[in-house]
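Chapter review: from sequence to fold.
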Amino acid sequence: MADHGMITTPREKNVFLGEELLKYLKFPPTGEMRMMYFYTKEKKAKELIDYLSDRYSKRFEIYPSKQLLSEGYFGFGNKNLEVEHRIGDYVLLAKDNYSFTYTYTGGEQKLLGMHGSLTYEELYVPLIFV
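The token string follows.
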């Protein structure tokens, strides 16, 4: 039984992010390696988006968290009051089979498979009847 699918993420398509992001963020990103949440410092959102776009264009999409929440990306119906505090100000969605790792220590290991973004393989889980 699974609650999500997985996608193979080759080592060469993993982007390691580090302390340079902290000049735009209140604290390091949270979330998954294919769906990161950014809590931006006041008036630093555009700079963050420009920084990421200049270095890693075509590897991700980034959206205001409230937009994805209102469009139903986090589900429909009654929402928990804490959800807006847990998804940051912006959400980075990795494209194709790219992934992003924030280097807390420099010793982070790269996983061979990940989940969290919106590819077909990650969204759908096959159901097999035996």
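Two observations follow directly from the output. The mean pLDDT is 85. The radius of gyration is 15 Å.
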